[in-house]
Amino acid sequence: MKKRIMLFAAVMMIALSSCSANPKVxxxxxxxxxxxAIVDTGKKDFKANSxxxxxxxxxxxxxxxxxxxxxxxxxxxSETSWGQxxxxxxxxxxxxxxxxxxxxxxxSWHNHxxxxxxxxxxxxMARVKEIVDWxxxxxxxxxxxxxxxxxxxxxxxxKGSGYYPNSTNYEESKAFLENIWSQxxxxxxNGYDEHLVFETMNEPRLCGTGHEWWFDPNxxxxxxxxxxxxxxxxxxVNTIRSSGGNNEKRFIxxxxxxxSPDSALADAFKMPEDIEKGRLIVSVHMYSPYKFAMxxxxxxxxxxxxxxxxxxTFKRLADKFVANGYPVYIGEYGxxxxxxxxxxxAWFHDFIKFTKAHGIPCILWDNAVWKVSGNDYNxxxxxxxxxNQSWYFPEILDAIMEEANN
Length: 406
Fold this sequence. Notes:
Blueprint: H1 2-18, H2 51-58, E1 60-63, H3 89-97, E2 102-105, H4 122-137, E3 141-145, H5 170-187, E4 196-199, H6 220-242, E5 252-255, H7 261-265, E6 280-286, H8 290-293, H9 304-320, E7 328-333, H10 341-357, E8 362-364, E9 384-385, E10 390-391, H11 394-404
Parallel strand pairs: 1-2, 1-8, 2-3, 3-4, 4-5, 5-6, 6-7, 7-8
Antiparallel strand pairs: 9-10
Helix pairs in contact: 5-6, 9-10, 10-11
């Protein structure tokens, strides 16, 4: 036992010395049990200098939805708790073979904490790392985030239950994110080059309130939320940079409230300060226009006016961010199945064509729900058959690939 402890200590010292903390950014005071941490001992050169060019190279991608982000309580088995099959290398190989250049791996962490000090179950971290590595082996870009860790209520949170963008929960949110991201940074550092992108949070929002999905710049709750989210994005950026190694140069994506375009475009949203210039990305989600892409029953026909609305939003994002050195990616997008394949295919053609014109890659949201029953079109965002490595709607895949590679 003594030899094992000494060996672990030696590995930790080597790993930590190779990923030495950046003296320009103060490392957070963390509580997690470092003896349980998964430590990256790999070595890869980080070659890319421009987030703008790197994001363009991401081209188009797919989300491993309702999988590692599932919040089942049985920790390691939560991966399948929302009805998805266990992720296999064959699934990832199939995605790469179909032309997907990027995979976003939504991952929840709060339900995998094993003690009162924010320590992540090492089995969970090892599993996340395994799936990330399968994608990296396919020369794919990987986006890794903190997904369903937004607490469900604005009231004071219990320790370790996640984050919430309001003043009441700022200190606990800060501690959670510092500890979680410090452990992620230990597991993913010098062994990963520019193909691994970190995303601070997913759709941070005022859950349990009337402003959960609606940003009102004049509402006091929204002003408070925007201010606290700006601070929390900064906390994560600082935590990543302070971990040293390749994470000093890692590209980091930051969302506004709800990850919505309106929140990102609002004056209240501020990108973090960074010791590394040109390495931050704006993360936005778009299921728009809502009436066509998400609402049930909503509208089944895709109109010229809808096309114009989307084109205008992409231009505003490009004018505000891309033109000022902050690339944008659409971390989630899609159009729910309403038995309207022709209209959806036209929507996908436009969506990818418009975004590519501004250097904005899009990552398709996939929750594997694709069959329609009656007039219920809610959340039917299934595209890729994970059991057979095929596509439910080849016409949609063709539309995406045609525009992304044009």
